[in-house]
Write the structure tokens for this entry.
Amino acid sequence: MASFKRVATDQSNDKVRLINIGEYLDDIIHSLHPILKRKSHTIKVNCLKNIEFYVHAGAISQIFTNLIMNSILHAFEGMSRGEIIINISVENQLIKMQYQDNGCGMSPKSLDKLFDQFYTTKENSGGSGLGTYIVKRLVTDSLNGTIVATSNLNEGLSYAFEFYNMQ
């Protein structure tokens, strides 16, 4: 319950604070447990235990919540065992994050539109097309970082983003 409250509070404010990224990702994933427990998908986080940095924690929470939900709703549709792998590393003060799923992937045409506002592959199912648009805005605006997505059909989708420690 404490991790859920911490993540929910972070999502509603814009404060920079010190976080242990491995523990914080565990909190985010745990807060999504009601959704994840109905699926057979797995999430693996590769991160050293001592990686701490100052960051807009709410931005990190929203980024990973949106990415995980997109994988569940879009990439893993019709799959029984989707897999998400999150890799975190630090070089000097540069934080590098890679998020990858083994879902259905995207065509080059769809990938070109991925970060466009209101672009969705689920328009007829209530999709708003704001998930990855928001992710890009959070990475570039809130974290002053960069993000790149790569994909091929039937080979999953990968996001690589990086930003500097905000202290």
